[in-house]
Amino acid sequence: MRTFVKHNGLSLFFFALFLAALVGQSLTGMAEFNSQQIADHMATLNYGQYVTSSDFAVDVAENWQSEYLQFLLYIVATVWLLQRGSPESKSLDQAGLESDREQKVGRYAEAGSPGWAKAAGFRRFAFSTSLGLVMGVVFLGSWLAQGVAGTASFNQQQLSQLENPVSFWGYLATSDFWNRTLQNWQSEFLAVGSMAVLSIYLRQRGSPESKPVGAPHESTGVEG
């Protein structure tokens, strides 16, 4: 067990933080929701009812889709785009998909290479793009979930105000949907861009997200 924790410490740490934050969000979200319900002279929800409600679902989904969009764009953009001096960038002479030799695929695969890296045709292509594809699928799924849950939540509010509900496609055209979406996107894009630039000049000793402390600022694609 100790070896397992040591070998998987990073993922275990962040999954534990994720669960703690999700539970915290559900508790504070329920408190805020019920406070508004009381102010509107409407029935409150218990914990089980709240975490299965559209209000909770849309809040969770809108954050998930923006996070996975951030990683999808970062994964794909860093294939072609470079940032001089950043460890978040490839070296300045490595833009693009790189050669089969550099990527260790096909006849250049090593003994321990994954089977699909040694294969040809569709299997190699699928494995070569699998990270971006999965991130893209999760992003689209989360964005769809945000739209569906957001429609239900928006219509619940419309009906409580004696206004007409809207369809799924009608909700996608509302300012509520795009406000929820864009307020998350802009923060993610700023965070990624800041990381790429700040890591040129700042250091975090021992972190693979930073250059070695003594590396020149112009060193590109070098990790500590």
Short characterization:
By secondary structure, the protein is mostly helical. It is built from 10 helices and no strands.
Strand-helix topology:
Elements: H1 2-7, H2 9-39, H3 47-51, H4 54-80, H5 100-103, H6 115-118, H7 122-128, H8 130-160, H9 168-172, H10 175-201
Helix pairs in contact: 4-8, 4-10
Provide structural commentary.
With about 220 residues, the protein is mostly helical. The protein folds into 2 domains: about 1-50; about 60-224, no CATH class. The chain is about 65% helix and about 0% strand. The chain is built from 10 helices and no strands. It has helices at about 1-5, 10-40, 45-50, 55-80, 100-105, 115-120, 120-130, 130-160, 170, 175-200. Helix 4 packs antiparallel against helix 8 (about 130-160). The longest helix is centred in the first third of the chain and has 31 residues, at about 10-40. It is elongated, with a radius of gyration of 23 Å. The protein starts with a helix and ends in a 23-residue tail after the last helix. The model has no long low-confidence stretch (mean pLDDT about 90).
